[in-house]
């Protein structure tokens, strides 16, 4: 069982079936007595009392395991954390080498799904940004809702100004949300920024104000760089929206998107956060679990999807008990 987790049962009424245990023990005891009498009548060695004790214990373990499985056991952590995804949906997130590959945004979605799956006790929210920053979910434990939004609610062109990436504005919006809406965002201390970091001009000066706002609110940015080494083109789209073999261009030049991990690292460092490469999701999850979780508040009810099924261990115990009962008939214990 994970550290800090508690076990529960979804259908505890099943434990009433444990009443069958005393009759089963009585039947075993009755059969043991008759077997001894028959063996003594033929002057054959009878099994000792430890034979019965072991069989009774194995039978009790077998029945108790079956009843526990019927009660649908689960483990549920008693920790939680509030995390906010800040997702780049600007035009550069359509970058990929060919139409058969996932876009940068698709790759961002995979990271989000992995984080949500591996931090099941966390409460998550999603803010999408390009020139504008738009909260597209509430802070929630509902995994089905989050998966639905990730799949269908995140796309390039979410706002009509998708042709630029204003990370500084997005960071300021997050800081403002925490200040103005503490009942919703008050517990958010870590923001997971997913972007290629592709912004033009001198970024240090333009980001300083936003980073200072975040530091004042106590928010740490964990940047995840989405992109490829070098530069990645953006396949052009047909009028119907289908990807084509042609490459997007601007002012007669092919649009090429670099991964600006230097900018993303600068943002993370400016908020006492950390930068993670796209392939370091495991390290990101470990960091979130070690630094972002706290003991859950009394009365908070977690979603059922945050529970981990624990039937496997009772199945193991039941199988061992069944095998022991089978073997007991071939053993004589004095």
Please count the helical segments. 10
Characterize the overall form: elongated
Written as H for each helix and E for each strand, in order along the chain, the element string is EHHEEHEEHHHEHEEEEEEEHEHEEH
Helix proportion: 40-55%
Could you tell me the mean pLDDT? 87
Structural class: alpha/beta
Radius of gyration: 30 Å
Number of strand segments? 16
Spans of 5+ residues with little confidence (pLDDT < 50)?
none
Largest sheet geometry? 7 strands, mixed
Could you tell me the strand content as a percent range?
15-25%
**Alpha-carbon distance between the two ends:** 38 Å
Write structural notes for this entry.
The chain is built from 10 helices and 16 strands. The protein has 334 residues and is of the alpha/beta class. The strands form 5 sheets. Strands 3, 4, 5, 6, 7, 14 and 15 form a 7-stranded mixed β-sheet that branches. Strands 1-2-16 form a 3-stranded antiparallel β-sheet. Strands 8-13 form a two-stranded antiparallel ribbon. Helix 1 runs antiparallel to helix 2 (49-70), helix 2 runs antiparallel to helix 10 and helix 3 (104-118) packs across helix 9.
